[in-house]
């Protein structure tokens, strides 16, 4: 279906399809459009803001109306903010071609049941994993590509709750193109994808990243340790902490384990695992999408 030996190469997809990107001038819209533009697919771009339209024009892409973009498209990518995905889907889905695919880039709206449904339109959600912290990067372009979608290989986790495997293959082709270079597309349920993002990676991993930044700030600005010394110590230890815990590379020393226990007692609440409960997932997604509650 998709072949490439060279990670710098855009994968070749067969067969080519018509893809509409709605919200093509936003952060993700620009990223996915850049890769789709290089592919064999026919791509149409829709964007409503003047700033987004200018960003697209600067890269040689012209915006058409959403109606024109969606008309007859095989895959419609909604790259609009999650808070308007429901409303945008209400106008887009009725205009979609029978047998086409609606592709969103984050599970929250799908999980909350906000997307317009049609029996003859399949829905897929695909979230990029970003290049792994353990990725072996050999070229400068790979080191420079933190987000993924340019030179560093990444994986994707996607959901497609529909039986048609052929249609899922079409979705996978578009997903591999827009997030490429991609190693593996992992297929899960919408709910599992929602547990991965936000719970595992935003609620936990991104929060810990910000906590590290806050701790660095305290070390430098409250305690007065020279900034470069603090950064040198922290950045090396973030690396060893991750490889020791996630890959079992080295055992922590006994004293380090005692300090880690002190950190857990001081920083982490005893009931922190409640974030994996269904009602907590509903609660965080309700907050993220600025809803009153999730209706099911
Ligand atoms: N930003 C990220 O790092 C990231 C990563 C993975 C997934 N996502 C997902 O990608 C999607 C888009 O997020 P983003 O961060 O790119 O948002 P963004 O705010 O940067 O861009 C959204 C774009 O959609 C346009 N838009 C809004 N309403 C529109 C409409 N009715 N018709 C056409 N265009 C419209 C806006 O003008 C804007 O250019 C979301 O589902 C988000 O969760 C974002």
TrEMBL record:
The keyword Translocase does not apply. Residues 19-103 form the 6-phosphogluconate dehydrogenase NADP-binding domain. GO terms for molecular function: NAD+ binding; NADP binding; prephenate dehydrogenase (NAD+) activity. The keyword Oxidoreductase applies. GO terms for biological process: tyrosine biosynthetic process. Keywords: Oxidoreductase. It comes from the Bacteria. Residues 136-289 form the Phosphogluconate dehydrogenase (decarboxylating) C-terminal domain. PANTHER family: PREPHENATE DEHYDROGENASE (PTHR21363), PREPHENATE DEHYDROGENASE [NADP(+)] (PTHR21363:SF0). This is 6-phosphogluconate dehydrogenase-like protein. It comes from Kineococcus rhizosphaerae.
